[in-house]
């Protein structure tokens, strides 16, 4: 693993100020996202709840969900300790932001920390862990042969479309409720219920209590939504909240999927895996100025985020430039436009297979 930089060598090339957190600056970015969302919601309140305005409401959901994704990113920074040195303030903000998006904050914080520790690990990874050709279902994700056969029987276009639908619409709730795409080590986990009949492996020690604390916030939000629907009608909730939330969830899946999946990016077994090697298997992509602005550069600075997740997003651009210059052979950036990259991953990345020379697992593509 001599080709992978060590943390001390990385710390030498990243400017020291990149590791500092400024509460006032983080709050300023939060208020910016709030201001943008207030404007979008104010516009939404002027749209009538009539069938003839259905297309307008779809457009509204796309816009409002895209702007609201900024809250998800800030809550994500809170979960990593990148928002502020004031841990109580950071936890309150992260808990509130994630809870209003129906994300169980502490449950996610735990599973996401596992994802960071074992990025692209074939058995202990925690998001978008692929099916394995020859996997036994205990130490690896079995079912790769069946998935390859199925993808080739229906063709690349149909398989890609199905993958997009399953990932973007069903993927996030399926992960929260049943641990789908998580590694086999943790079994069928549930982010709301840390005990049987679900696996308890993801919630050691006091984390199970924190899951219940997350649930309390989610319950409050659900009660508010019920009262909202009761007072103002279900159409109001569907158009102003549910539609945009579905778009937020889609953005979340797009980012996590494309951060850690590409046809030439391997997954690793125990012999080849290390934290730093996994971190450098993250992929930066070109999301453009508007999305980078709204989403605080989460997609274009993700490699450095995996290397040093406590670096706040407003220093991540500078830190990314530093590692890109210092370690060009291992830094991954794919310039493919996002819509093309998403289709390529959905239609080509079916299952992985051990390469036979090491514990690297390479993608077996859909050749149809």
UniProtKB/TrEMBL annotation:
Q: Which gene encodes it?
A: desA
Q: Which CDD domains match?
A: Delta12-FADS-like
What is the organism field in this record? Prochlorococcus marinus (strain SARG / CCMP1375 / SS120)
For this chain, the family text in UniProt reads: Belongs to the fatty acid desaturase type 2 family.
Q: Which cofactor does it need?
A: Fe(2+)
Instruction: Please state every residue range assigned to the domain named Fatty acid desaturase.
Output: 56-332
Query: Keywords assigned by UniProt?
Result: Iron, Membrane, Transmembrane, Transmembrane helix
Q: Which InterPro entries does the entry mention?
A: FA_desaturase_dom (IPR005804), Fatty_acid_desaturase (IPR012171)
Membrane spanning residue stretches: 29-49, 55-75, 87-108, 157-178, 216-235
GO terms for MF: oxidoreductase activity
Q: Does the keyword Transmembrane apply?
A: yes
Q: What is this protein called?
A: Fatty acid desaturase
* One GO term of the biological process aspect: lipid metabolic process
Any Pfam family from its record, for instance, is FA_desaturase
